[in-house]
Every structure is written in structure tokens, then in C-alpha cells.
Amino acid sequence: MMAKAEGIIIRTTDYGESNKIVTLYTKEFGKIGLMARGAKKPKNPLSAASQVLFYGLCLFSKGRGLGSLYQAETLNAFRAIREDIEKMGYAALILELTDRLTEDGQPSQGIYNLLCDTLLLMEKGTDPAVLSSIYALKMMPQAGIDPELTHCVHCGEKKDHYLFSVSEGGFLCSTCAKVDDYALVLSQATQRLLPLIRSIPLDRLGKVSLKSKTIGEIESIIYAYYERNAGIKLRSRHFIEQLAKFRTNE
Ligand SMILES: [Zn+2]
């Protein structure tokens, strides 16, 4: 069956001397694997489309197994992201998370829109670290690991100050802190921002700028949470950490 769909390429693998297998996340069909014949050859019409972060309209055949990609037309080249190594690192994190948290052939309008909107905002200049954190937080229910961020996860009471417990699953008040020796101390900014950025619609985000200490705190909570509670350790995260080290040594 031939199909046409809007989608984003979230992963590519070389296949043989000249082919690639691409993982396309589409609006209509969810995640699908496609063979892009000849895509490793620079002059092949599919070579530009068979890159991670390609966003456009694709024409492909779809069957029980791997389909074939025939044509692709770019909707947004994401030039500003591709030309900036840090943005590209954060975009890779978003794409890897999408790949790890979705199953083949299960469409989700919500995830598709969130993915596109996040990348389009990054292209327009919104802070990539903030955007990838928002994306990762909003995708937590998809991983089945939504943390408690409105009251203490242990006693259920609302307090002014909380710690964060990765193992208990969210905010922990000081009275209950003894249940987790490894509960993380939160800054006031992080405590306020975590529930806020999880619930904020992306179109209402506006201009955000967070202190690098705050966003660093938020990121370490999010990725420790994915690792411990969903068993997901993201390869792209390593690249961003290396990049951050390089920056501070400058
Ligand atoms: Zn408590």
C-alpha cells in the first residue's frame, strides 16, 4: 500500500553499501521503519531526506514488515538547529526519547504535535535545554512514570518546601524525608518550575530564560528519574554532558 504522510526522521541506520533504514515518526501512522534505497550516495534524491531531524512530507510503501521510502519533500530544514552543535545535541535527545518511548504503528496526535512544536520553537531560538526538559517531562506519562509534583508523595500533605525523591516518585516533605536517604535537595526555583513546565502549553511558553544552575538541577532530576524508574539511559545525554564540560573549561 502506498501512503503519504507528514513526519520527522528520528533515527537512521546504514544498511549495506548504499542504503539506509530510517525511522520515521508520522502524524497518521505513528512510528514506521522504511528502507531508503541509495540514500548513502550523496547524489541520490533520498540522501537529504534520510538524515536525522528531516521534517517533511514522505511518500512510501507500507506493508507488514519494512516499507520503502520513495520521495520526500522538506517542510522545515531546521537550519538554525543543524548549524549549532548544542541545539543539535538537544534535538538528538528529543528524537532519541521519542524513539525509545513509542511503539511501531501506534499513532498519537498529541506526541506528534508536541514533537513538531518543540523542534519548531527550538529552530526559532527558544532555549534548547529548557525545551528538551519540557519535552522529557511531558513524555513521562508515556513512559508510565509521572512524578508527584503537587504534594508530598508519602503523606499526601501540601507543604512549602519539598525534597525530590527519585525512588518514591516525586516531592517529599521534610517530615517524610527519612523514607529516602537519597532524596535530592531542591532550590525554590526548581520546586516552583517542575510542575509549571510540565503543565504549560508550549504556545504559552513565551520567552524563557533560566539560570544554568536551575536548568542543570531540573535536567539531573529528569534523567535520573528516567533511568531509575523507566530503565532508560539516553545516549544523547552523554554528548550534552561532554559539551558542558568543554564549555566550562574554556
Ligand atoms: Zn510527607
UniProtKB/TrEMBL annotation:
Top-level taxon of origin: Bacteria
Keyword tags: DNA damage, DNA recombination, DNA repair
DNA replication/recombination mediator RecO N-terminal domain location: 2-78
UniProt entry tagged with the keyword DNA repair: yes
Keyword rRNA processing: no
GO biological process: DNA recombination; double-strand break repair
One GO cellular component term noted in the UniProt record for this chain: bacterial nucleoid
Family from the record: Belongs to the RecO family.
Function: Involved in DNA repair and RecF pathway recombination.
Name of this protein: DNA repair protein RecO
Species this protein is from: Sporolactobacillus nakayamae
The encoding gene: recO
